[in-house]
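Inverse folding, one chain.
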């Protein structure tokens, strides 16, 4: 019995330590499907997402989903710590509960209690090991526990920094492409007289953002569960808007003028494909179509209004359709999994942006008047 407990304890320690190493320290995508962290998120997120879909209030739905990301990280840390304490407690039991207690006979509960105080380096002194093997286990657990706590202390600020860095550009997209951000508003506000002088630097910035999103969310996949501050904004919505805009420009432009749009599209498509792969999500077809023929006509009108001269509209439509098939199925599947809404292609022309309203204005029936619609 004690031998079996020792084997189970070693297995539990190895599993917990390796899972924490892969999740926190290893800076690359982990391909193994049988992982504790993956099992935890699948077993907790899927029931929650089904529950959320039954809620009609968007505010309550957003609040509930907003708590999940941070709470899930805390729960995962507790599971790792609890598993390590359990494993070392089983090892102490396997070595014969070689502990000294004041006025009490050692029991199984004593092994787990001693393991917990050792892991968190409390040093209460009411229980201590009697044999050399028990002392070695105590030193190993105390060192592992101290390292684990130090790792968590340094890890949480880094995680918060990655989230904040992601959200800065998403917030800046509000004035650049509307709320929610759309491809039509991105073009309407940043293209003038058919030139891309204002849009090219913006696309370059979003090329960098897409690469950083890919790197951070492959290293820390649970960042994808962290919601943005506004319900009409999300990392997936921003990424989809950039893909929509880049795909449209690649379909319209020729030669060197499409270079920046193509590079931005390439890295953004890379990000959305790899993230779908990490979460094991299969692509799905759009139903209904995100860009029906009527909206496609409006979109070409927007291009014409910004100064683009469309020579062969059917050819543009065909090329745009080919680009869309490269990323839309993955965007739709990710949106369904994370309970997020994808932005439309065509934004409401007079819809207020997030920066234009607030509780004070809305409570008094007032709204700031936008100084200029076209920038």
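Residues assigned per position:
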């Amino acid at each position: 019995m004690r031998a079996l407990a020792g084997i189970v304890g070693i297995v539990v320690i190895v599993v917990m330590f390796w899972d924490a190493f892969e999740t926190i320290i290893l800076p690359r995508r982990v391909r193994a499907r049988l992982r504790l962290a993956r099992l935890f998120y699948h077993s907790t997120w899927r029931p929650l997402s089904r529950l959320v879909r039954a809620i009609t209030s968007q505010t309550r739905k957003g609040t509930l989903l907003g708590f999940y990301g941070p709470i899930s990280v805390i729960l995962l840390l507790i599971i790792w710590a609890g598993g390590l304490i359990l494993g070392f407690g089983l090892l102490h039991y396997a070595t014969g509960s070689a502990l000294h207690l004041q006025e009490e006979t050692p029991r199984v509960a004593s092994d787990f209690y001693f393991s917990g105080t050792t892991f968190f380096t409390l040093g209460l002194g009411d229980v201590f090991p009697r044999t050399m093997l028990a002392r070695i286990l105590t030193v190993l657990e105390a060192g592992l526990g101290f390292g684990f706590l130090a790792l968590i202390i340094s890890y949480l600020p880094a995680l918060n920094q990655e989230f904040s860095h992601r959200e800065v550009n998403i917030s800046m997209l509000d004035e650049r492409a509307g709320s929610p951000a759309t491809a039509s508003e991105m073009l309407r506000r940043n293209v003038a007289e058919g030139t891309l002088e204002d849009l090219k630097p913006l696309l370059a910035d979003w090329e960098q953002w897409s690469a950083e999103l890919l790197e951070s969310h492959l290293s820390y996949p649970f960042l994808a569960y962290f919601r943005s501050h506004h319900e009409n904004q999300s990392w997936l919505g921003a990424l989809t808007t950039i893909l929509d805009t880049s795909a449209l420009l690649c379909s319209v432009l020729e030669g060197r003028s499409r270079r920046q749009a193509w590079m931005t599209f390439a890295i953004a498509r890379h990000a959305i494909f790899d993230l779908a792969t990490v979460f094991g999500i299969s692509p799905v077809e759009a139903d209904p179509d995100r860009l029906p023929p009527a909206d496609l006509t409006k979109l070409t009108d927007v291009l014409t209004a910004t100064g683009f001269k469309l020579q062969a509209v059917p050819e543009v439509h065909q090329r745009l359709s080919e680009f869309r098939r490269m990323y839309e199925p993955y965007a739709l599947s990710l949106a369904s999994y994370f309970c997020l809404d994808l932005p439309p292609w065509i934004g409401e022309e007079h819809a207020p942006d997030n920066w234009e309203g607030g509780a004070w204005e809305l409570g008094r029936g007032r709204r700031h008047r936008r100084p200029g619609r076209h920038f």
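The first strand starts at residue 99 and ends at 101. Confidence is low (pLDDT under 50) at residues 362-367, 371-375.
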